[in-house]
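From the thread on structure requests for the teaching lab: each student submitted one protein with a one-line request. Submission from student K.M.:

"Model Nucleotide exchange factor SIL1 from Trichoderma arundinaceum, tokens only."
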Amino acid sequence: MASARSRSRSLPIIFALFLGLLLCLAIPAAASASQPSPQAGSEKPDLICHTSNPAECYPRVFEPTDEFQTVHDDQELPNGLHVRLNIWTGVKEAKINVPDEINPALEGLPVDQAVVLVDQEQSETIQVPKGAPKYDSIGKVKEPAPGGEAQVEAIAFMETFKQLKSGVIPSDEEFYHGLEGLEELSHDIYYGLKITEDADVVKALFCLMGTRDGEVTQGVTPRGQQAAAILAGALSNNPSALNEVAKIWTDLMDSSCPRDGAPIRDHFYYPMASVGDSPGKVKAVVSVINGLIKDGNIRKHFLANKGMKQLLGVLFPEGEEWAAAQRKVGQLVLDTFLDEDMGAQLGQWPRGQASGDVTCLAAETSSDDGCWDYHVERMVRLKRGQWSKELQKRLTAARKTNSKIPGHGEL
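Reply posted by the TA:
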């Protein structure tokens, strides 16, 4: 009996221990279940899918390889990759960065004792006069000292040069600074010639110049304006550079821009002041035209394609911010067509008589060649400067003289 009572007393104790053990096992499981799973909305999905087709999905984080692959706009890029952009298509590509990989932008540059040489004639010796500018005349550049500023400039020149040829850039910011540097060097006779000697680079600059400003970050010069400034710098007081462009002019105008497939002619002859371009951009383009039409054949092409109509449109705006661009137009017309003392060849323009106010106030005829007189008079009334009075006087005299030339009608 004692043994039975002992067993009966021990059963509740064993049962209590068993329940306690179950509770110990259940509490961590319940706690675990009550906590949200890290994958339950706290992490982004590993794939990005814009359609129901699984084949069109791609990794959220870009997975680089040794070859360039397209990077989607909403993909995340790991740090340290080799990234490049296409200035015409806007496509971004990336691959694994190789630190010792040769930069293709420098391919073809001769290197001697850590000094980058730019087509130098080693056997030629030129006596440089005291106080001469940094660079010598066409065909010769002073050998840059190792690690010197000239070496850095030569490398930067070639990098931007090849980016223009290929259309592939490392980033918008680097390309912007590259164009800035190229604009500075373009005023040098040697580098200005080098720019115009390469037809692909000239084509790229004309296509960039033809791009509209669009939305521009304050303080940032639009690419179109940068390209125009480079061309203007290369052509300014550089007859050899102008001759290079003149040799390819017809083919250049017939070439198409990769951005939209339109011929460069359409991008060059456009109503500059009425498509949203800034006054600064328009002024730069007028500077390019001023340099180009110093060549007789290009000038004939410009007149035949109603280029004067394009220039006249710059005189339409009345805002003071247009004054500098309008002065540039006035000086171009005086120096090229009306002022013989400045090298103008008289008799080429204007042609025909001045139009009346009614014609020049009508939108469809306001840009006619005969309306130059009307709009120049507006410039005088707006007190744009002495150039407007001089242009008005010489334009009136040229109308009278040219009207007496037999067969001097409209082009």
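TA comment: Confidence is low (pLDDT under 50) at residues 29-42, 109-129, 135-146. Residues 23 and 308 are 95 Å apart (CA to CA).
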